[in-house]
């Protein structure tokens, strides 16, 4: 590197180079780091601005969406001329003007289980700026499989959360907090519940700070800690995250299983025609000619002892489907996913059963209205 | 004699159910009875997705509570 370029660089980063505990070493670590920012929206925009400004060497930006007017109150990289244009490319264009020392790669693609692992594997750190549970669980599981540091952030209304997963001696991930994705509509997103524009600005900036701390080794990054912040009262709260056996059992065991996982379906975004809630389930318990079937494997708890039912594990179910004789069949399992699978199978054989249902949320969410 | 009250922090959209971010509830012996007590007071919690944290750790089984316990209810967020 010639003299003028290196002067240029030391001038650009001067205010952090002179920081006690930072200096040239930290700057060099940033320059050789590769970060993938998934989602160039409310969280991604501020995170990207600071990561690029700070001099992270290579940054990938994944977003398949286009800029819309309702984005502009929080997605601060875009302006009115950008409406209708792809976010990843527009973000890369603007960020390139901020810092020509950073290699910025726009990736205007939809992240899917089939392309996720390959893409994430090319980066050192993943920053989650997505806006839906299907993408969040997919990115979480991919990072666990790849053992890749994940800087998580999420917002809702006036509150935000930040955490770092898959780092340190004890690895934890999002499923250690929330093992199963919520069903569609169970938790409202920003489009439904709203968000104060400046809030993702704060949380996304915190994510950038955590990524910079991780790369440079300064401070105490939020490893295995979920930080929660409320902008209205400036209340904050920290949760300690510990690994759970349930979480470990829910993550696809390998790349092959991962690529076959339908995260949209897990998050209830596809085909919910079979699903019924607790109150309908309860009313079906007393209906004539109705068969209630537990499709969990033998020995799974909690036991369903509050109502009569048959046990027919999913692993044995397929060959028994033809024998089911009832007007109505209601499947249930632990969380409502396997029972949904069972319902789909039963529908596919086109047998004599007229009504096929699956208990949404499974036995874990089942509570008899009478026992309340 | 009635139980002493304990305060519970409530986060995110769960405050739509509880109406407040800081609940005052009679202390219960353990987290399961506390959940039951909360569900009695706020039936919509039965169908809400959240974790209860006692002393900053998510409750996975049933843990005993004391007057010194800090309790929080946290929902998942997806917004970005």
TrEMBL record, chain A:
Pfam families: Rhodanese (PF00581), ThiF (PF00899). It comes from the Bacteria. Residues 286-372 form the Rhodanese domain. CDD domains: RHOD, ThiF_MoeB_HesA_family. This is Rhodanese domain-containing protein. It comes from Flavihumibacter stibioxidans.
UniProtKB/TrEMBL annotation, chain B:
CDD domains: Ubl_MoaD. This is Molybdopterin synthase sulfur carrier subunit. It comes from Flavihumibacter stibioxidans. It holds the Pfam family ThiS. InterPro entries: Beta-grasp_dom_sf, Mopterin_synth/thiamin_S_b, ThiS/MoaD-like. Gene3D superfamilies: 3.10.20.30. It comes from the Bacteria.
């Amino acid at each position: 590197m010639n003299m003028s370029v290196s002067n240029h660089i030391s001038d650009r980063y001067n205010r952090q180079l002179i920081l006690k505990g930072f200096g040239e070493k930290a700057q060099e670590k940033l320059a050789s780091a590769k970060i993938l920012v998934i989602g160039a929206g409310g969280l991604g925009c501020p995170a990207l601005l600071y990561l690029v400004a700070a001099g992270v060497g290579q940054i990938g930006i994944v977003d398949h969406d286009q800029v819309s007017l309702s984005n502009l109150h929080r997605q601060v990289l875009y302006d009115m001329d950008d409406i209708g244009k792809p976010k990843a490319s527009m973000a890369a264009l603007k960020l390139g003007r901020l810092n020509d020392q950073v290699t910025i790669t726009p990736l205007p693609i939809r992240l899917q289980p089939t392309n996720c692992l390959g893409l994430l594997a090319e980066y050192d750190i993943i920053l989650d700026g997505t806006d839906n549970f299907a993408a969040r669980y997919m990115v979480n599981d991919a990072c666990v499989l790849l053992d890749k540091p994940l800087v998580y952030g999420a917002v809702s209304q006036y509150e935000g959360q930040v955490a770092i997963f898959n780092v340190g001696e004890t690895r934890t991930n999002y499923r250690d907090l929330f093992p199963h994705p919520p069903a569609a509509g169970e938790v409202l997103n920003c489009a439904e519940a709203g968000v104060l524009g400046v809030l993702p600005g704060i949380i996304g900036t915190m994510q950038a700070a955590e990524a910079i701390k991780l790369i440079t080794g300064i401070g105490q990054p939020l490893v295995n800690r979920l930080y929660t912040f409320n902008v209205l009262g400036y209340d904050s709260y920290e949760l300690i995250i510990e690994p759970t056996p349930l979480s470990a059992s829910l993550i696809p065991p390998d790349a092959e299983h991962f690529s076959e996982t339908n995260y949209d379906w897990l998050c209830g975004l596809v085909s919910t025609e079979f699903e019924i809630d607790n109150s309908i389930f309860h009313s079906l318990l007393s209906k004539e000619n109705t068969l209630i079937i537990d499709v969990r494997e033998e020995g799974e708890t909690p036991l369903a002892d509050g109502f009569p039912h048959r046990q027919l594990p999913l692993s044995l179910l397929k060959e028994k489907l033809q024998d089911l004789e009832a007007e109505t069949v209601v499947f249930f399992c632990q969380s409502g996913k396997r029972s949904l699978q069972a319902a789909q199978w039963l529908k596919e054989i086109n047998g004599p059963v007229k009504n096929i249902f699956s208990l949404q949320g499974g036995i874990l969410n089942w509570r008899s209205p009478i026992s309340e | 004699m009635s139980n002493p009250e304990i305060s519970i922090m409530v986060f995110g959209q769960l405050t739509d159910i509880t109406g407040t971010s800081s609940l005052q509830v009679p202390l219960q012996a353990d987290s399961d009875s506390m959940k039951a007590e909360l569900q009695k007071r706020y039936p919509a919690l039965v169908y809400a997705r959240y974790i209860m944290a006692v002393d900053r750790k998510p409750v996975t089984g049933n843990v005993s509570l004391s007057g010194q316990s800090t309790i929080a209810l946290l929902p998942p967020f997806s917004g970005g």
